[in-house]
Amino acid sequence: DNKGLKDVYKDYFPIGVAVTPAQLRDPAQQALILRQFNSLTPENAMKMAAIHPQEDRYNWQDADAIVDFAQLHHLRVRGHNLCWHQQVPAWMFYDKAGNLATKEILLSRLKAHIYAVVGRYKGKIYAWDVINEAVADGGDQPLRNSPWYQICGEDYIFKAFQYAHEADPNAVLFYNEYGTESPKKRDRVYQLLKKMIAAGVPVNAIGLQSHWSLTNPADDEIKTSIKLYSSLGLKVQITELDMSVYANEDKADSTGYTPQRESQQTQRYGQMFNIFRANRSVITGVTFWNLSDKHSWLNNFPVRGRKNYPLLFDRNLQPKKAYWSVVNF
Ligand code: G3I
C-alpha cells in the first residue's frame, strides 16, 4: 500500500522532517519526503548566520527554496529559529566601532531581524521557534549565559516573542528546548514559561526537541514534561526527534547498529509514539531531525568519524524495523 507516516497519523498530528534545500532537489529524497511527511523544518537555512550574514544583507535563497517547495506540495513549514546562541552572525553583538553592542542596539537588531524574516514568510510559515535553548543545563543561574543574556538580561526572550507576534499575528510561537525531561531543567523552563504567560508574552507552545537515546530519558519523564507544560495552556510539539544508539556519555563506544540495538530501538520508537498518540489533545506535531540515518547530524557528533543510526530510514532510504513499529499500532 501507498501509505506514509503522514497518512497513518492524519487523525493525530502532522509528521515533519528537518531538511536542506539540496535534499529537496534530489529525486530519491524528494520522493521519500513527499510520501512520508507533511511538514518541513529547515535544518539550518533560516538560522541567523545563514539568513542574515550582514546587518544590511539577507540571504533568502535557501530559505525560499524550502518554503517554495512546501507551497508547491502543500506541506506545512515550521520556522527554525529566530534567536539562538549558536549560528549567530559575527556582526550581531558588536557596534560599528567594534565594542560590545548596547542592549538598545541589540534589541533593535533583533527586532529588525524578526520583522524581516517572519514578515517575508507571513502566511507561509505557520509556526516559529522564536527562542531556542535559552535555559541553562546546570549551574545556579537558570538562564543560559549567552551574549544575548549578558547584554539584555531576560528581556530579549520576552521581546523576541512580541516582535514575532507583531510581524505575523497568526503564527504559532514556540519556545524550543532540549533536555526538558531532566527535572532541574524541566522546572527552569516551566518557571520561565509561567513568567512569560503571566506577563502577557505571546508564547503559544513549547517545542520539546527530543534528541533521545535507547535508554534516556525514561518514559515517565517524557510524560511528566508533556503534562506539566500543557498544564500552562500551551500546545506541545516534538520538534527534533531522533534516537541515538549510543549512551550520551559513552564517547568510546562505536560498536554500531547491533541486532540488540536494532530491536531496542524498534521497541522504543513504538513506545514513544504510544505516548504521543495518548497525548493527541495537546501534541500538534512531531518532527524528525533529519530524513535518514545517512543524513543525521549525529554522525560525527560528539565523536568524529562515528556513525549513528537514530532515525526511521536507513542509509539507502529504506524503512527500518523501527518504522514499522511507529506505523503499525
Ligand atoms: O555551511 C558551512 C560550510 O560553509 C562550512 O564549510 C562548514 C565547515 O564546518 O560548516 C558548514 O556549516 C555547518 C552547518 O551545520 C551546515 O552544514 C556547521 O559547521 C555545523 O555546525 C552546522 O551544524 C548544525 C547545528 O545545528 C549547528 O549547531 C546541524 O546541521 C543541525 O542539525 C543542528 O541542529 C540543531 C538545532 O538547530 C537546534 N537543536 C539541536 C540541533 C542539533 O544540534
Automatic annotation (TrEMBL):
Highest taxon in the source lineage: Bacteria
Record's keyword terms, sorted: Carbohydrate metabolism, Glycosidase, Hydrolase, Polysaccharide degradation, Signal, Xylan degradation
Give the annotated active site: E240
Record flagged with keyword Transport = no
Which Pfam family, any one of them, does this sequence belong to? Glyco_hydro_10
- Catalytically driven reaction(s): Endohydrolysis of (1->4)-beta-D-xylosidic linkages in xylans
One GO biological-process annotation of the entry reads:
xylan catabolic process
* UniProt keyword Lyase present: no
Domain GH10 positions: 1-329
Q: Name the Gene Ontology molecular function terms of this record.
A: endo-1,4-beta-xylanase activity
Instruction: Identify the EC number(s).
Output: 3.2.1.8
Could you say which protein family the record assigns here?
A: Belongs to the glycosyl hydrolase 10 (cellulase F) family.
Query: What is this protein called in UniProt?
Result: Beta-xylanase
State the organism named in the record. Answer: Mucilaginibacter corticis
